[in-house]
């Protein structure tokens, strides 16, 4: 009997060792010269860019296969941090937002890829990944926020299309005009939809206000943007934050199903809108893009460069990668940030970091608006980061998200909310 | 008196251990070790990637100055103070109601238990739509009965907590109803008979027979409810995400934010230790009170 207990325990131990052994199995460079790299991605079924990059690279380098590892888009960084800490993360992983780049970089979870960066000719947003003269990731997507507008609804309301000359006051005035015009025409659509994210207001405020600095802990620059949004909510020209959150509204449905005549959103929505119009998830209507509204007249018009925001999307290498695979991984980064991948990405409606190489390609895609304003909006902009890289960015953004929901729900007036956010920033983050 | 031979006793012990071990190893590795480590990390500035420095009481000193921590603690107490009695009363009421022999009682018991096993994300989404200030049916009914300014529920800083408490109570009452139902089966029928013979009415029977017999069950329910209330997390995360502002930010969510969103695992561990301490203290007090009553 005793012996059988020992045998059972022994068998269990062997089994558990075998199981854990299986999961940590790693296939790197094989003896036959073939290499397998792993790449992180999210929502692979609806986000084709990862497979596109993997296949494109494999075509050029038949000896290297890139396998995808899927993550949940909403919890991408949480899961990635856990995987990195556990040593289970893929060889190459995406910097989905800049908010967590500091965490990865300061936590020594990114390999120095300065040599890759040195070989890149044009890459919007590269500087965000540079710390102390070294580069830790390279951007492959370089989105920026623009206005999307529904030409049919504008025509119905008899309002002129945005032409790049708009300040935020013009935008708000047009939004109200559209709402009344559409009502008169018997449409239920509103003039504007702004999504529930804090970035819809705070991203622009930070990028466009001279001297605005997130890390300073002074948030006075937010006031005009919130005052305007509250006024638009009150006037009924846009859905209030409360109704948008309680009903789980999606911006894809709000714009795609023609519930709103215009909205500001990142250029990533171009690809989504195209595919949803094809699949029937969005109505078929003519739409356009225009430069984001500006803080004042000094940056409007096609002679100036409009200021907007967005975080680049980059690729970095996990330092735990097999030594023999580093060269292949760096070659993948060069490819992904280079002109060939830029064209391939643009062909499916994605804005690559290398916009120069891709402009012709993206405007040749069927359904993409090709008027002069759209081309200008796509190619010319000064795009500032939404999350400037820094130690305090993540906690400060959390504080500002509380401000966002408190103000737009009408629970706090903007001055009190700013004062409270500044106090919290000082006591809980900056001087803790 | 029988004596068990030493060999057999050893065999029995080993046999017992072999039954215990699989569960115990899982518990030790997945629960005990992390819990013990938590107490260590509470005194460090751990960032998850191995960078961990001993910082002594720094985390706790920071907590004293941290207004958001106080807000989260206050909100947690607010939730607890209302959620416990409401759920207790609702569960007990349901149990008494459904302890009768009536047609379709099994159906009604199932209905009452249903919220507990429904996906929390779906529940939160549906309740959010019911609570929607502009288009939701709850406010439509309120307006119809003459309330001119119905509350903004989850979109208002004053009403978001009551809304969450309502949903929390609705969700958990079915589970505790089941426990009360089980407790009610243990009340001896002759006590009711005796009470009836003595001329006690329904209310008196409830006060003098049912409730005292249910005391062990009630105690269990209160302890479970207390711990559940203090660590409420998923419901709030999906319903309000702590907002608007910080109006529904609770301790468990604050820990999640500090840890998984801001990567201050040391500080998050320290807050967890405080939450553990509160739960522990309250439970001990409840035990002591219960023992004194029983004595």
TrEMBL record, chain A:
PROSITE patterns, per database record: PROKAR_LIPOPROTEIN (PS51257)
Coiled-coil portions: none
Name used for this protein in its record: Sugar ABC transporter substrate-binding protein
Species, as recorded: Actinoplanes awajinensis subsp. mycoplanecinus
Domain of life per record: Bacteria
Gene3D superfamilies, per the entry: Periplasmic binding protein-like II
InterPro entries per the UniProt record, alphabetical: Bact_solute-bd_prot1, SBP
TrEMBL record, chain B:
Transmembrane feature ranges: 20-43, 77-99, 106-127, 173-192, 213-233, 265-289
Signal peptide: none
A cellular component term, taken from the record's GO annotations: plasma membrane
Keywords, sorted A to Z: Cell membrane, Membrane, Transmembrane, Transmembrane helix, Transport
PANTHER family associated with the record: ABC TRANSPORTER PERMEASE PROTEIN (PTHR30193), INNER MEMBRANE ABC TRANSPORTER PERMEASE PROTEIN YCJO (PTHR30193:SF37)
Family indicated by similarity: Belongs to the binding-protein-dependent transport system permease family.
Protein name: ABC transporter permease
């Amino acid at each position: 009997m005793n012996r059988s207990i020992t045998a059972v325990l022994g068998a269990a131990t062997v089994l558990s060792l075998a199981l854990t052994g299986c999961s940590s199995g790693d296939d790197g460079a094989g003896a036959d010269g073939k290499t397998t790299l792993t790449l992180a991605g999210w929502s692979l079924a609806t986000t084709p860019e990862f497979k596109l990059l993997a296949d494109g690279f494999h075509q050029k380098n038949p000896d290297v296969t890139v396998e995808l590892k899927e993550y949940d888009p909403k919890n991408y960084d949480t899961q990635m941090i856990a995987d990195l800490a556990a040593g289970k993360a893929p060889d190459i992983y995406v910097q989905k937002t800049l908010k967590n780049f500091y965490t990865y970089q300061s936590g020594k979870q990114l390999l120095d890829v300065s040599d890759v960066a040195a070989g890149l000719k044009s890459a919007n947003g590269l500087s965000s990944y540079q710390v102390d003269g070294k580069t830790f990731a390279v951007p492959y997507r370089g989105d920026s926020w623009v206005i999307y507008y529904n030409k049919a609804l504008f025509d119905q309301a008899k309002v002129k299309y945005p032409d790049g000359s708009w300040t935020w006051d013009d935008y708000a005035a047009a939004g109200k005009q559209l709402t009344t015009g559409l009502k008169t025409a018997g449409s239920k659509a509103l003039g504007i939809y702004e999504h529930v994210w804090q970035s819809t207001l705070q991203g622009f405020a930070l990028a466009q206000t001279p001297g605005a600095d997130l890390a300073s802990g002074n948030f006075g620059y937010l006031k005009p943007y919130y005052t305007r949004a509250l006024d638009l909510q009150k006037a009924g020209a846009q859905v209030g934050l409360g109704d948008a959150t309680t009903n789980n509204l999606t911006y894809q449905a709000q714009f795609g199903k023609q519930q709103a005549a215009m909205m500001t959103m990142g250029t990533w929505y171009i690809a989504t809108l195209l595919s949803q119009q094809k699949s029937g998830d969005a109505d078929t209507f003519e739409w356009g893009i225009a430069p984001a509204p500006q803080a004042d007249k000094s940056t409007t018009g096609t002679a100036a460069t409009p200021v907007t925001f967005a975080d680049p999307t980059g690729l970095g290498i996990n330092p735990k990668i097999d030594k023999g695979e580093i060269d292949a991984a760096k070659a993948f980064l060069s490819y992904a940030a280079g002109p060939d991948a830029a064209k391939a990405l643009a062909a499916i409606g994605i804005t690559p970091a290398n916009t120069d190489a891709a402009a012709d390609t993206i405007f040749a895609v069927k359904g993409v608006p090709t008027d002069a304003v759209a081309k200008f909006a796509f190619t010319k902009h000064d795009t500032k980061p939404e999350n400037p890289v820094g130690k305090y960015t993540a906690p400060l953004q959390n504080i500002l998200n509380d401000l966002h929901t408190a103000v737009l729900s009408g629970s706090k007036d903007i001055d009190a909310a700013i004062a409270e956010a500044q106090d919290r920033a000082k006591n809980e983050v900056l001087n803790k | 008196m029988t004596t068990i031979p030493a060999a057999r006793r050893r065999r029995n012990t080993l046999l017992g251990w072999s039954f215990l071990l699989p569960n115990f190893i899982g518990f030790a590795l997945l629960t005990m070790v992390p819990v013990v480590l938590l107490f260590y990390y509470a005194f460090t500035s751990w960032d998850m990637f191995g960078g961990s420095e001993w910082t002594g009481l720094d985390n706790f000193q920071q907590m004293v100055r941290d207004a958001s921590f106080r807000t989260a603690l206050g909100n947690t107490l607010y939730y607890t103070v209302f959620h416990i009695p409401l759920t207790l009363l609702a569960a007990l009421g349901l149990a008494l109601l459904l302890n009768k022999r009536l047609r379709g009682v099994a159906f009604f018991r199932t209905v009452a238990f249903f919220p507990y096993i429904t996906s929390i994300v779906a529940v939160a989404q549906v309740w959010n739509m019911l609570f929607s200030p502009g288009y939701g049916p709850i406010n439509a009914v309120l307006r119809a009965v003459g309330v001119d300014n119905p509350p903004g529920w989850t979109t208002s800083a004053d009403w978001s907590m009551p809304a969450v408490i309502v949903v929390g109570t609705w969700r958990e009452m079915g589970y505790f109803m089941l426990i009360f139902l089980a407790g009610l089966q243990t009340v001896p029928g002759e006590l009711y008979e005796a009470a009836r013979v003595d001329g006690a009415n329904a209310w008196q029977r409830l006060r003098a027979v049912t409730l005292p017999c249910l005391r062990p069950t009630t105690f269990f329910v209160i302890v479970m409810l207390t711990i559940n209330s203090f660590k409420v997390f998923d419901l709030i995360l999906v319903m309000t995400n702590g907002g608007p502002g910080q109006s529904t930010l609770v301790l468990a969510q604050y820990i999640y934010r500090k840890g998984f969103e801001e990567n201050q695992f040391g500080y998050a561990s320290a807050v967890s230790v405080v939450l553990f301490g509160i739960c522990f203290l309250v439970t001990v007090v409840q035990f002591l009170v219960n023992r004194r009553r029983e004595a």
